[in-house]
Amino acid sequence: MEREFVIPLRPENLREEVPNQFWVISGDRIEGGEKPESVIDDVAQRLANSDDENEGPLAIGESENFDALYYIMIHLGELNPDAKTHLFDVISKGLMQTMTSINQLFGRDNSKKKKKRGASPADGDAMDTDDNRDPTAWKSQLFKHRTALKMYVWLMQWFASKEDDAWMQKSSTANPIAPKAPAQKSKKAKTHDANQSPWESEDERTKFMLHLSKVLKLDLARLWALPKPDEPFLGLFAKICFTLLENPENSKSKHMRECIFAVLRGLVTRYQQTTEAVNLLIGLVKKQGQNEQSVNHMVELTISVVSGGAENNIDDDEDEDDEDGSGEGADKRKKDEENRGPGAAFLGDVLVEISNLSYRELTTNNNAAKGFATYVSSMASHFPKQTLPYISQLMTHLSGESANMRSGIIEALGYIIHKAFAQFAVRTDAAEEIERIKANLGMRDQLLDILLQRFRDTTSWTRGRVLQTWAYLAENNAITKSFWQQVTTEAVGRLHDKAAHVRKCAIQLLQSLLLNNPFGPELKLTQFRAKCNEARQIVDQRSE
């Protein structure tokens, strides 16, 4: 009887017997006296052999093989580096062979090209449908491949989690007061030596992430016989990515970050796994908000997801645009997808979660408030139109006690006012466009009015940020004439502020207002005096 392997919440859950589900039934061979190296060799030999009596990498679905690897993972901290390297190689090799077997099962070698060219199933064996096979045998093959894939990915996630935690603990406890050694320029410094775990090698971690990105490119919907795989399986990828991002050593490497972002981008844009990714991103910012570099990495991740999602959604139409001799259609669709694609939905979910954060939490956790403020400001700068629909929810934090959060929202308002309302091009019917422009201008004036009210914020740091934001708008000609006089009056008033920082910002704002005033760099007083005299004469005549 085939038993379904269900991704457990904790590894211990696999020891509990559940009807019709896979559970660990064998004993711990290592506690029984066997050496871990011999157990790994035994499993590796069975997984490597593929013949009529042995299914090769798919044999991990058999209890004797999976149970042995399970208990080896239990004792992972006791293994020497060579044994860990061997274990890592066995799991990685098994995963790669399983992916190759899945591609062969579905005949994926040439199917993509034939689909793009509009080929029918009759054009070749690679396009054969599942109905052409024996239903019972086909279901059995799908089950074996699906089980093996889930087991290998789960084992890799468990391995990564345990080894990364051990590595971080080792790095934090080893010589905490010793001076930092100078960085070595040699490339050999990145590879692990005989006394290091394979996980401490950047090359091995990169290889690990490349394996995961390839898994997401498989025809998983067909393997599961569903629109997409089950949520627990996809959740493993998000957990792995954010486990790695928590480690500063992984974040420092640009190549490693790109590999992590590629996996997360695939989860969000291809499988719409926004909830898990959003929750983990919010948690990571809360935990490492004081680290500006970590927050910048989250910004980089979001940019990758939003921009990458738009590119992925127009891939199928690129060839048609090229045939027309221009890429304008693809460029236009890319902009539209950035506004409404899965990447934009991911950004929207993140901003909604930030808007729902409690005032108390942001007040007590100042580092988290600083991180979220930086994130919101950066998103408004990079994606002003995508951030605009959520700014009303984010502005609830202007009533909170966190000065950092208020400052971040104010910066975001400045970027939105400047960039989201920069152009009002007439594209369709003139009457409709005029109404649209009026609505946009009205919304812009409302945001300017809110920003005008923040001149009297209770915190000097935030008042200074308000002045800096108005200076930014003045330099970019984003202040309408109706607000110019009010802003100037408020800036003059801030010259008497009790905080020196605010007074300095007020001087800088006045300088920007003078240099960028809408009446030109020079005021010709003779013309205005003549008009003033004419106006006085009219007033005097009417008063008589």
Spans of at least 5 consecutive residues whose pLDDT stays below 50 are 109-128, 177-192, 313-330
**Backbone CA Rg:** 30 Å
Can you count the helices? 25
Give the termini distance in whole angstroms.
107 Å
User: Could you give the order of the helices and strands?
Assistant: HHHHHHHHHHHHHHHHHHHHHHHHH
Strand content: under 5%
Mean pLDDT: 81
State the oligomer. Answer: single chain
Count the E strands.
Answer: 0
Q: Quick one: overall form?
A: elongated
- Secondary-structure content class: mainly alpha
* Helix percentage range: 55-70%
Biggest beta-sheet profile: none
How would you concisely characterize the structure shown here?
With 544 residues, the protein is mainly alpha-helical. It has helices spanning 36-48, 63-74, 81-106, 111-116, 135-173, 202-216, 220-224, 231-245, 248-252, 254-271, 274-288, 292-313, 318-323, 328-340, 342-355, 359-364, 366-382, 384-387, 391-394, 403-419, 430-453, 460-475, 481-493, 500-515, 525-543.
